Amino acid sequence: RREPLALINLKKKNNEETGEEELASRLDHCKAKATRHIFLIRHSQYNLDGRADKDRTLTPLGREQAELTGHRLASLGLKFDQIIHSSMTRATETTEIISKHLPGVKKISTDLLREGAPIEPDPPVSHWKPEAVQYYEDGARIEAAFRNFIHRADAKQEEDSYEIFVCHANVIRYIVCRALQFPPEGWLRMSLNNGSITHLVIRPNGRVALRTLGDTGFMPPEKITRT
């Protein structure tokens, strides 16, 4: 619903039909001008033995991975607008480390990006079978995250933007499928390393391109994990 035609009222206030010239002018006013660059970062390796979220802190290797990811993002030389991150501990800690390499970039925490079960995968897998209710609870929230964050630029945005989202593998994989208009049930066919960078580009006309998926080429091989 970001198409210019969806953003205007096709009838005038006096109920007369909108003229072609006026319609063209109003459509032009609603058209996006800028490109959005979305960098989706998977959190670093964390303590799998933690029973509660607060106990699932980053491992020493996970902290190293976050440093490497932060250094990589800084080396791109881009003017990042913001870092939006999942409110879960492992994502928050990853964000804090990354942000040290990007001074001045504001951080925003959100529950929408928390890990979960987005949609039942096709084909199913034997090693991961959440309760059906999880798909209804988590799926609606993760879909809301997609609709809230992944869209063309606002018509008022004049310059290209560069935004970082630090969250989780399931969330990122689902968002990639939805953004590319692939069947979202295929999200589990992708695999993402810890601290990896996935880069989506959203053009003013709404077209989306995937520049990189799960890139960890900036990490030494012995530092790469997928836990």
Automatic annotation (TrEMBL):
Stored PANTHER family: PHOSPHOGLYCERATE MUTASE-RELATED (PTHR20935), SERINE_THREONINE-PROTEIN PHOSPHATASE PGAM5, MITOCHONDRIAL (PTHR20935:SF0)
Stated family: Belongs to the phosphoglycerate mutase family. BPG-dependent PGAM subfamily.
Catalytic activity: O-phospho-L-threonyl-[protein] + H2O = L-threonyl-[protein] + phosphate; O-phospho-L-seryl-[protein] + H2O = L-seryl-[protein] + phosphate
Name listed for the protein in its UniProt record: Serine/threonine-protein phosphatase PGAM5, mitochondrial
Name of encoding gene: Pgam5
GO cellular component terms, semicolon-separated: mitochondrial outer membrane
Location of the protein in the cell: Mitochondrion outer membrane
Gene3D superfamilies named among the record's database cross-references: Phosphoglycerate mutase-like
Swiss-Prot/TrEMBL keywords: Hydrolase, Membrane, Mitochondrion, Mitochondrion outer membrane, Necrosis
Species whose genome carries this gene: Rynchops niger
